[in-house]
Amino acid sequence: MGAVWFATRVATFALFLVAASLQGDNYWTKAQPGYFDFLNIWDVEWYGRIFDHGYPNSLPITANGNVAQNEWAFMPLFPFVARALSVVPGLEWRFAAPLLATLFSFFAAALIFKLFTRLMPERQALWGVGLVGLWCASPVLQTGYAESLGLVFLAWALIPIHDHRYLLSLLPIALLTFTRPGSLALALTLVLIWVVKFVAERRGGELFAKTQKLQLGLAASAASVIGFAWMLTAWLFTGRPDAYLATELAWRAGYLGEHRLTPFEGWFASFNFYFGQPIGVFALVTLILAAGYLLTWPSVRALGSSHIWVIAYFVYLLAVFFPQSSTWRILLPAFPLLGALAGPVSRSNRVVQVFLVASLLALQTWWLLTCWNYSAPDFTPP
User: Fold this and answer.
1) Main-chain dihedrals φ then ψ at residue 76, nearest 5 degrees
2) With CB atoms counted within 10 Å of each terminal CB, which end of the chain scores lower, N or C?
3) pLDDT value for 167
């Protein structure tokens, strides 16, 4: 497994060098920046500010009286770990962030492989890990973003959930809450598992034992509370109950202007923004139907609790996310789907496998040149 993941990181490293050679002067660097400088652009700057001075006690306000973009949109665990390691001479943020992220990506790959081997044959699990590493947005796993550490905690949480040791999932869920958004989707996963088991028992299926019912209910309740911990933290330190949500919405202002968060509105607003009406609504409905069909595939349903996680995560995204170019990165937590899709790949002949790997590397190149390379004004964030 380690060799497979190492190969994907080497390939991405080479593609980063190619993309850097094509990068012009920009807000963060001069033209053709070095590897580490190139990996410290986009939202890495925000994590770097947290690394340097933490969070503001009051939210910055625009001339229109609205909350401006600020550090509270980003969780603290990744930059704080980097800060703890800054005692090492010369290990400043621009070096520590990508090195830590790359290291954490290996931990994430090991846990993903451990999860996959519970769900599928080892050869398929290896291909599943490889597909995660070849996903078009996987280069972000070696930049100063918190995605790689977030995948560590997510995969860690999904393993005890699969093993029906639900209370053990609460620690990684709590750590994820202070690393990346998405822990509420894990709470929803636990709720849905409880519902599925309860309904199955009522229909004469497998007995839903009282102890398991109690543990699952406690875990779901605790995870639901934990999922709001970062919002409560932002409220506590800034004095504004909506500090986190108002900060997150500041990133949508460039697309939609100032507005409030309405669940499930973001997808309609995004598709109408990009495609206009009625094409936007038609395209969104088509996408939702296609995703729903994908989730009914036997290989996807065979994922068990990880299948329920993907459903919960998609519902979570539909409720709160505003789709744009960062969607490819935001889809990384749905990695169990790649494990399911790895089945036919693992059984294909060598020519098909080589073609697939080459195609995925081409898509990574496209993602780097489109989403990571910066040319002002740029509305294609990674």
Assistant:
1) -90, -15
2) N
3) 97
Q: Is 61 helix (H, G, I), strand (E, B) or coil?
A: strand
Terminal Cα distance for the chain, rounded = 27
Q: Across residues 310-328, what is the average pLDDT?
A: 96
Q: Is residue 378 part of a domain?
A: no
At residue 256, the pLDDT reads 76
Q: Answer yes or no: is 360 within a domain.
A: yes
For 61, phi then psi, to 5°, come to -120, 140
Instruction: State residue 67 phi and psi, 5-degree precision.
Output: -70, 130
Closest by alpha carbon to 188, among 220, 153, 155, 232? 220
Q: Is residue 334 part of a domain?
A: yes
pLDDT(307) > 90: yes
Residue 281's CB: how many other CB atoms inside 10 A? 15
Measured in whole angstroms, how far is the alpha carbon of residue 132 from the centre of its chain?
A: 12
Q: How far apart are CA 363 and CA 382, in angstroms?
A: 14
Q: Is 224 exposed, middle or buried (CB count within 10 Å of its CB: 0-12, 13-18, 19+)?
A: middle
Helix (H, G, I), strand (E, B) or coil at 67: strand
More confident residue, 337 or 375: 337
pTM of the model: 0.96
3-state secondary structure (DSSP) of residue 255: helix
Q: Which residues constitute the domain of residue 76?
A: 2-372
pLDDT tens digit sequence for 320-355: 999 999 999 999 999 999 999 999 999 999 999 999
Look at the chain and count its residues: 382
Q: Identify whether 137 is part of a domain.
A: yes
Cα–Cα distances (Å) from 331 to 12, 29, 173, 266, in that order, read: 18, 28, 18, 16
Could you read off the pLDDT of 189-211 as tens digits, one per residue?
A: 999 999 998 888 777 767 677 88
Judged by DSSP in three states, 259 sits in: coil
Q: Indicate the residue type of 346.
A: S
User: 38 vs 51, 68, 368, CA distance in Å?
Assistant: 18, 26, 11
> How many domains are contained in the chain?
1
